[in-house]
C-alpha cells in the first residue's frame, strides 16, 4: 500500500523520557512497521510539540513550526493514566477535543478515553446491557480515614480486590481479606491520591484478552498471572484463537462500542464469564511480536481499521 499519510502518536510531555527510551525501542518500532503496511507513517509527538491557532473562521493546528493538513495527518489519541501522567490528563483531553473540532481524525475521542481509563465507567454500560461484570464499588480516597462515610464498608463481603480506578490497574492490585486490611489499603491509596475500585474476588481459571477489529473478535491472548498473591496482576501471555463461547460474549460488546479497534478482557470462572477490562490501545505484548506471525497481522489490521475509520468520517484525501 502506498504511504501518503501520517499518524501522530500523541503522548504527554512528561512522558518524553519513556517515549525516547524503552517505549520507542521495543513497542513503537513494531507498531510503526505495522502502520506502514497499512499506509501510515507513525510518528511519536508530545502535546508540547503542538500549537493551536484561530485565524478568522479557520482553526489551524501547528506541529513543530508547520501547519498540519487534516486530510493527510491524523492523531492517535489514547489517554495515558499512569501516576506520572495524572497532572497532564486534563490538558491532553483538552488537546484531543481541539484536534477533533479542528477537523482532524483522532483514533480515540474524549468520551471514549473516559470510558476506557475510568474503570467504573468501563463497567457501567455493559452491566446495564446484561453483561456479567464483577461486583464493583468505587470510592474517592483523597481524604480517606476512619471517618469515611460515603459507603458503609461493613456491607462488603470479603475477600475483595482493591485496585486503582483509573490507571494501569494490572498493577497496584491488592487482595483484601477483611475490613481492617481494607482500611489499611484505602489509607495507602489516599496517600497516593489514587481513587479505588473494590471488586469481588473471583478465583477464576482463565484470563483472556480479546482483540476486536470493527466490532469483530479477531484474536486472543491467554494470560497467566506472574504473581501468586492475586490473579489480577501483571501477566505472561500466549496468542490463541478466540474460543467460540467467548466470541459470543465479546462481539456484542465490541459492536455496541463501535470502535475500529478495542480489546476486551474476559475472566472465566466455574460459574460465569466476566468482563474485567476494556483497552483501546492494547496491542499484543511486544515480546510476542517476533514469536507469532499473527501478532503483526493483527497490528496491521488495527491500523487498517483506523484508515477505514478516517475514510468513513470523510477525512482521507
Structure in words:
By secondary structure, this protein is of the alpha+beta class. The protein has 3 domains: 5-108 and 305-312, 3-Layer(aba) Sandwich (Rossmann fold), CATH 3.40.50; 118-133 and 203-280, ATP-grasp fold, B domain (D-amino Acid Aminotransferase, Chain A, domain 1, 2-Layer Sandwich), CATH 3.30.470; 136-200, Dna Ligase, domain 1, CATH 3.30.1490. Helix content is 31%, strand content 28%. It contains 8 helices and 15 strands. The protein has helices spanning 16-19, 22-37, 89-101, 110-117, 119-128, 179-191, 244-257, 293-312, and strands at 5-11, 40-46, 50-55, 58-63, 66-67, 73-76, 136-139, 160-164, 174-176, 196-200, 206-213, 216-225, 235-240, 261-268, 273-279. A 5-stranded antiparallel sheet has the order 13-12-11-14-15. A hairpin with a 2-residue loop joins β4 (58-63) and β5 (66-67). The longest helix has 20 residues, at 293-312. 36% of the residues are buried. It comes from Nesterenkonia alkaliphila. Keywords: ATP-binding, Nucleotide-binding. One of its GO terms (cellular component) is cytoplasm. GO terms for molecular function: ATP binding; ligase activity, forming carbon-nitrogen bonds; metal ion binding. Residues 123-311 form the ATP-grasp domain.
